[in-house]
Write a structure and sequence with these properties.
Four copies of one chain form a homotetramer. With 145 residues, the first copy, chain A, is an alpha+beta fold. Chain A has three helices and six strands; from the N terminus they run ααββαββββ. Chain A has a six-stranded antiparallel beta sheet. The first copy, chain A, is globular, with a radius of gyration of 15 Å. Chains in contact: A-B, A-C, A-D, B-C, B-D, C-D. Strand 3 of chain A pairs antiparallel with strand 3 of chain B.
Amino acid sequence: MTKSEMQPRIQRLLEGEESTSAAWRWLGIKLLEAAPGRTLCVMPVTEEMRNHQGVCHGGFITALADSAMGSALATVLPEGERHMSFDLKLSLMRTVRVGETLRAEGTVLHAGRRTAVGECRLHVDGKLVATASGSFVVHRPEQTD
Amino acid sequence: MTKSEMQPRIQRLLEGEESTSAAWRWLGIKLLEAAPGRTLCVMPVTEEMRNHQGVCHGGFITALADSAMGSALATVLPEGERHMSFDLKLSLMRTVRVGETLRAEGTVLHAGRRTAVGECRLHVDGKLVATASGSFVVHRPEQTD
Amino acid sequence: MTKSEMQPRIQRLLEGEESTSAAWRWLGIKLLEAAPGRTLCVMPVTEEMRNHQGVCHGGFITALADSAMGSALATVLPEGERHMSFDLKLSLMRTVRVGETLRAEGTVLHAGRRTAVGECRLHVDGKLVATASGSFVVHRPEQTD
Amino acid sequence: MTKSEMQPRIQRLLEGEESTSAAWRWLGIKLLEAAPGRTLCVMPVTEEMRNHQGVCHGGFITALADSAMGSALATVLPEGERHMSFDLKLSLMRTVRVGETLRAEGTVLHAGRRTAVGECRLHVDGKLVATASGSFVVHRPEQTD
């Protein structure tokens, strides 16, 4: 699949249109780059994401990682596909602070007929703060179940 | 540690006080039960949590699981401790819909001097929808670094 | 599926027959108990499993956990099924020594048409030493691909 | 740490000396390359590693991944250190057959005072068959506990 064949949904996100995902809008996730098998998403860490220890709650970092991997997967699947996270794994190496911007690069490692595997690296100011991997169940449009 | 010795922060959450965590307030997470090594947290799945496929974004489920495991850990650690998620793993078995309420039971499996391991089971209406496990780095108050 | 309907392969293992898996024989894994959705497997930790720090190499603990979850899955699937580990996650809480016997209880949390999720608790002398979770891709006999 | 400062144990493995780890010898794991923060290990898949479905048991793939990450970690830690896997996560993308040789590249993503994170990519004949990540608890020689 070449860049010009990517799903219209991905193309529109790249052009700055609002996401059709309420979660993306709520979290402030934006798609900055997309190529077949790879996307770059960003998310500003806001006051609302602060945990009781004063730093970004790990759940939001996972949410961004999941979003980056999911959108990377969408770049290699035809329109009409559905994919669902089956498992998510996050390794957190550094705390992330309010006011920082998280950049998440999602990559597709494997896209089979029914399952897919992605990974994600998350940086703040060029420093690796977390890595993630995820497995996805894929329903391609021609599949009837 | 007995229930009456649990950190005042946990006691106050149980009494219905607002969480000191902005993330908990934003996500609507409430602590319903706490016993040494175990907590029950709930989160209503709102419109804002909807992904572009119309169901709850996996990141919020992870956020709740992390919160449940973190609060379970707090029930067995003395006041002044700090703990940080080191890795998080989520297995998603069923999709979760807007309007449903997620119940997450966090359990401490191991609480060592420097590290801890927790797990979490997440239910909707009595059905298991996800499981999670997490590792934590622990700083007990007497530790100086 | 009741106990008497379990695959003959599982029944034979319970009766003490040698496993058809070379890996099980090599590692000394035995199936002690099996009920629908649950198995108990044991493995003696031998000199060969010692890592350069003198304790059991984590890979063998994972091998046992994978085996316990896979056999638990086999108790709820019809003969002729195939299942493959898709992801495995192990949390190690205590070191395991040569001469100890690992007991692994595998449990099926979810068995869908195409995917399944299992978990495992591993004990030595009644102490929890590790937990594992795994996702599996399932091919039921009626499926043609 | 430069290559010439790597622990003698790693240097000797590179020179083809037998590993001091019984597990490495039993599994036939060899260290082919080592640079600061990175190693390449290989393991031939033997008849003994066959599971009852006829392909390599996932536990051995995990064992190799753990070994590659552990040795990569040893390249950046001083002699006398001890490190233990704290969690291991493997994503399996393709089955691995008896007679194939697995190549595992271990990389250190983070090496803190007390914890470290590594990842691993496993190939057969240039094809990605699995990825792994792992967290480690590190005891540096100067630490007294």
